[in-house]
Amino acid sequence: MTQALHVGVHAGVADLAIGLRSGQFSAEELARALLNRISASPLNAFLDLRPEVTLAQARLADARIARGEARALEGVPIAHKDVLVTRDWISTAGSRMLTDYRSPFDATVVDRLSQAGMVGLGKLNCDEFAMGSTNENSAFGAVRNPWDLNAVPGGSSGGSAAAVAAGLTPAATGTDTGGSIRQPAAFCGITGIKPTYGRASRYGLIAYASSLDQAGPMARSAKDCALLLSAMCGFDPMDATSLDLAQEDYSAGLDQPFAPNAVSPSRPLAGLRIGLPDEFFGAGVAGEVSAAVRTALDTLEALGARCVRVQLPNTELAIPAYYVIAPAEASSNLSRFDGVRYGHRTANPSDLRDLYRRSRAEGFGAEVKRRILVGAYVLSHGYYDAYYLRAQKVRRLVANDFDRAFEQCDLIAGPVAPTVAWNLGAHQSDPLADYLADIFTLPASLAGLPGLSMPVGFGRGDGSGSDSSSASGSKSDPSPRPVGMQLIGPALREARLLRVAHQFQQVTDWHLRRPPEPRSVTTG
């Protein structure tokens, strides 16, 4: 491996695009090097690789570059979360129900990134049907966190986050229903953004909760995410919830000061008001997480921002509201998997009822079954008003909280999760512990607002997901695990979030930190 290629393997999207155009290495060389890393990785981040497909796409990219016809992201590799359907790779949604399923078309998000010139590496592991916060619910085994192989990577986009953090791919797609881009990005020390609901097409996204699901990019930096988001967003007539808005270049204003008349280059965020919700900094947040976020806020203030207190009084109600609404929609969406049209079909059913019952029992995992049962219950006659309708009213209250808060600030900041990543299996007997870990990401999802996670430090935790601020530092302590800070903006203000994160990353290096190479991983 040449020195230039070795550097390229560990580079981000923006730098790779430059390296490919300048001929420092070819798209085929880069793809081969990453496929070698993936094959040797112990993380279980990938579910399907088709080297012949990847290398064919890379050769086409090299030919376009040679002809001077390179598109915006020509030759840059990307991998896709397995809830986005693809023609060239299987699309399982992490479930036995869809083992070996091949879609006849690409999801719009996948197609748009391909049209921008990106080279597909394969499909990434995820919680089954995107239901989970740890990536332990995949039918094909848990994904491991590259910073500590004993830790979860977060979910449901854990395969995406782990692969980017470990240098197996410079970029990945994720989906966020209740925090499934932001939380794994935080746990793995990368940057990820959930755009406003409707910004990115849901066509070809295997549905979990249709009023909440939203695709978004995951990469090293805000700059890389801006390039990816620019390519993947835009109106799609195939998606009834797609916003009819022109495509936006999110990378164009990254280096511009927040206030048009700013006079100090060292204070590019002068005029920015950052709201700090009291509810995001309470007793339930681990001391090391709170300290890392507070230090990051100090940095943003040094760049000219001003922090103000705001209130989001219905934050705690977001958890029960979400875990009524999302399972209700899931129970409806997953009813299509009945063993008749496509998906897993049980052997030798005695009758139609037996076909339905055994196909679904064999195809779905425990967490999916749990949510289907909850959803069917809250939608049933006699309980709809008491649970589902009331949860929708709470959803409106949560959105109203944000409306009031944004009258006092330009964006909201706080922890992504109350703790750093916990150990694999730590919450296995208590699924509610996973649900509670979503408390800071759920409100923005319920309100349909954009949210971004960026790395701001490290903590050691105690492996259980509890407050570990008194960790002893002994040899038995877990390895350092990343801490993420969340930025939430008003609807359609993704560019604002990306600009603030980019300015932060210009003066810090948390997004440049790399986990140690596992002993079984080689660089080709």
Offer a quick outline of the entry.
With 524 residues, this protein is an alpha/beta fold. The protein is built from 16 helices and eleven strands. It is 35% helix and 12% strand.
Please tell me about this protein's structure.
The chain has 524 residues and is α/β, with parallel strands linked by helices. The protein has a single domain, classed as Amidase signature (AS) enzymes (Alpha-Beta Complex). It is built from 16 helices and eleven strands. The strands form two sheets. The protein has an eight-stranded mixed beta sheet, with helices on both faces. Strands 1-3-2 form a three-stranded mixed beta sheet. Strand 7 (273-277), helix 9 (287-302) and strand 8 (306-310) form a beta-alpha-beta unit. Helix 8 runs antiparallel to helix 16 and helix 10 (318-333) crosses helix 12. The longest helix is centred in the C-terminal third of the chain and has 22 residues, at 384-405. It is globular, with a radius of gyration of 22 Å. It starts with a helix and ends in a 17-residue tail after the last helix. The model is unreliable at 468-475 (pLDDT under 50).
